[in-house]
Amino acid sequence: MKNILILILLFLSTHTFSQKIEVLYMNSHWNTRNDYEYLNKLQGAKIIKVDYEDQSPSVKQAIRSVPAIIILKDGRPIATWQADISMKLKVRYETVQEIIDNAKAPARRASTN
User: 58 lies in a domain?
Assistant: First the structure.
């Protein structure tokens, strides 16, 4: 019985303190030649690819140009990049990966000493 309680507590604490990081990648079928070439290199996050044309009008209003990358932490956006006038996404791989890594790191508490 004691082992079962320990397993349940371990599961609950892991689930409670885990943070879900996702990379939402949005592009259009007509713009695939401008796909973000580093998308599959990103680590530590679930990659979700969606087509712009399949989105609701409210989502389409929020996205001004494709391709676009939105990093979500527990379902909330924490960083967004969208293509420039050339229809290319010009964000360095290291920049995106750093945001993912920082989002996964536990929050630091301020010292009271």
Answer: yes
Question: For the chain, what is the radius of gyration of the CA atoms?
Answer: 18
What is the CATH number for 27?
A: 3.40.30.10
The answer, yes or no, to whether residue 80 has pLDDT greater than 50, is: yes
Domain range for 32 is 19-104
DSSP annotation of 104: H
Identify which of 61, 83, 58, 79 has the alpha carbon closest to the alpha carbon of residue 70: 79
* Number of structural domains in the chain: 1
Q: Is 13 exposed, middle or buried (0-12, 13-18, 19+ CB in 10 A)?
A: exposed
Answer whether 27's CB lies under 8 Å from 82's CB: no
Residue 82, by phi and psi: left (phi above 0), alpha (psi -120 to 50) or beta?
Answer: beta
pLDDT band of residue 113 (cuts 50, 70, 90) is: low
Residue 60 inside a domain? The answer is yes
Domain annotation covers residue 59? yes
Above 60 in pLDDT, residue 44? Answer: yes
